[in-house]
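Much of our argument rests on the idea that a fold can be written as discrete symbols. Part of our work consisted of pairing the sequence of a single chain with a tokenised description of its backbone. No coordinates are needed to read the tokens, only the vocabulary itself. The record that follows shows the chain in one-letter code together with its fold in token form.
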Amino acid sequence: MPLPSWENVVQRLGLAPGPRPPRLKPRLPSTAAHVSAGHVSAVRLGGTASGTRGSPERPRVVAHAEAEIPRGASLSFTGPSQLLDLAPLSRAIESVLATVAPRESRISVVLPDPAARVSLLKFGRLPATRQEVTDLIRFRMQKVLPFRVEEASLDFQLLSDENGEETEFLAVLIQRPVLFQFERLFSARDRLPGLVDLESFNLANLLARSGGADGEDVGDRALVNAASGYLTVLYFRNGLLNFYRCKPLAEEERALPERLHGALRREMASCAAYYREHLAGAGFSEAVVRVVEGDPAVVLGIVQEEMGCRARTLDPARAATLPGGADPSDPRWQRLAPALGAALGRPA
């Protein structure tokens, strides 16, 4: 049997020139922490456990914890100058780590979606190198960022076929001082943040690991994240992301349930109109919804009406074995879902 050529070996390892990252799959930590405006939560996974008959084995949740950040604590994810009092957040992180990861040194950290600017960018040709992609993204984004592009940490993912007429990239930019601020909160406790990611992306990870929105999907699906203080909507077409929108909610919109639900309905209607008018949408087969703020039944009804499809609540138990006696419908599992998605990692 002939040995593979050196060029093939380099290509398989992801070391050949091109816009893609290395193809060697990293070993992500089995522990993840999620920092939000009101809570810090963490999850640690252990060995696999048998699922239902005929279903594959799933990782087990061996530890989980939550800690509240007191209302009124000064906490912002959009600028380091607004992180005036880190003590409440620091205590909450200390509390969950002591319970979930007393000895682990590696951890994934999940931040709320508004912490970064996310864009889907199309280019007329495939850039030759990752550096060229980075330069093009920075050039395209410099006029729309709320901070100087030179201050941004940037990552991206190629979404389209390399051989297509256009290439599309998912680009994520976060202000470095904001990123470093949160990394230091964990590194000061001897935890190395091996991965820093956003909330809704890890809900997508969780959904993919539970049999939805992965590469085998056919048709259009929606993922809706009604989080604390914002709404994020993602569309997937044949398993590939083709729409992302994150809309922060004003305090007056969150003051009363009817105002909150009205704001969610307006935003969902706007996203649905974009789907019909700009994405040539033929209709969603399903919408999966995570609800942290708002009445879950009301929010599900809004999504179903505006998207014109069946809507169901995101179920973490489809992707991981929860502790004995745990009820997947308990609101705590909606709050823990982003950390669980990060601990599960990206599907192969």
